[in-house]
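Inputs:
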Amino acid sequence: SAVISQKPSRDICQRGTSLTIQCQVDSQVTMMFWYRQQPGQSLTLIATANQGSEATYESGFVIDKFPISRPNLTFSTLTVSNMSPEDSSIYLCSVVLKLNTEAFFGQGTRLTVV
Amino acid sequence: AQTVTQSQPEMSVQEAETVTLSCTYDTSESDYYLFWYKQPPSRQMILVIRQEAYKQQNATENRFSVNFQKAAKSFSLKISDSQLGDAAMYFCAYRSLPYNTDKLIFGTGTRLQVFP
């Protein structure tokens, strides 16, 4: 299994500002993902964080709004830029240890934009 | 593209009783994984059970079991002897196998309430 530390656990931010969320894993992982869960909704994949290269974004998500870094195999950050109230969601980091195993999740970051 | 559908937004069950949560999916792939995840109020996503599409035998984990009907593209979760701690959101999820993308496609979730 994997232990994932995601910070912050929650934050309240002013519109127009940016927030960076950190995801630290206790072991090297092959794949890291960032999901968004809007209030009362399911999880939607934002992007796959690639180690040493640009993240792969899903349709509807762009790098300027959600820049992602992954400098090594155990750490990644997601930034929510120029925030608006519509960005209020839970953001979750997910990892897969090796191919064909289950995904593990961080505890999520509850973001409220006012 | 693959889709996952959970048609029951909410379900309720009495403690010690059995409840079944429904999930259907659409795919043109022959090999894939299916999962049920539980999300309690703590927000932590917890894997409940997984099923490989190439396995005919239904997966079982203690009180949790699935009814996997590949031809019908159905993947229901049965919770036996329900406990108060089972109360949570339950998400059905799909993952492709051939391309090893490892990303999950989630259904909309079912909120399960357990009454004493």
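The longest strand of chain B covers residues 88-96. Flag for discussion at group meeting.
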